[in-house]
Design a protein that fits this description.
This protein is an alpha+beta fold. Helix content is about 25%, strand content about 20%. The chain contains three helices and six strands; from the N terminus they run βαββαβαββ. The protein has a six-stranded mixed beta sheet with strand order 1-6-5-4-2-3. The longest helix is centred in the N-terminal third of the chain and has 14 residues. The protein is globular. Bound molecules: tetrahydrodeoxyuridine.
Length: about 160
């Protein structure tokens, strides 16, 4: 039997975070309020911190044709990479906001968003810290890779 172990910090008091991290969380919260989620009413916000100290934020965007919608994380990540392809991503924070649902624990990003985040981490060869949070707690992962064991990666596409 083989096993994976995933380590993360559970932070109950935001005083344990740096000012920059608190700012990053605030930005994710702010942008979640502007999500276009009329169908699910499940608002998600994601904020990215780049190596030059700038932030890029995104939220989920839905559509009457449901599959057209896209998660907050990929909106933020694709906007980041479209505008700053050469800057490394240092941290990403993700949160939810909803009148309709009890957000009892921090959101866990979907598999597609984990895959996208991980590819950028591998490309830049430096870890991206991930903060998943709600009002009660922050889960801090040291690298995106920890969120996706046994992932599919670009090196699989190398020809013989
Ligand atoms: N959603 C995100 O934006 N991020 C996630 O990690 C999970 C789900 C969005 C997609 C959809 O607009 C709504 O939340 C409900 O699934």
């Amino acid at each position: 039997m083989r096993e994976f172990k995933i380590y993360f910090d559970e932070i109950l008091d935001r005083k344990g975070l740096t000012n920059t991290e608190i700012e990053l969380l605030n930005k994710a919260e702010e942008i979640s309020k502007k999500a276009y989620a009329p169908y699910s009413k499940f608002n998600v916000g994601a904020s990215v911190l780049l190596e030059d100290g700038s932030y890029v934020c995104g939220n989920n965007q839905e559509n009457a044709s449901f599959p057209c919608g896209i998660c907050a994380e990929r909106v933020a990540l694709f906007a980041t990479k479209a505008n700053n392809p050469h800057l490394k991503i240092k941290k990403i924070a993700i949160t939810t906001e909803s009148d309709r649902f009890n957000i009892e624990s921090p959101i866990a990003p979907c598999g597609m968003c984990r895959q996208v985040l991980l590819e950028y981490e591998e490309q830049q060869k430096e870890p991206i810290e991930v903060f998943l949070f709600n009002d009660a707690k922050v889960l801090k992962f040291k690298q995106a890779k920890d969120l996706l064991p046994l992932h599919f990666s670009e090196d699989r596409l190398k020809r013989k």
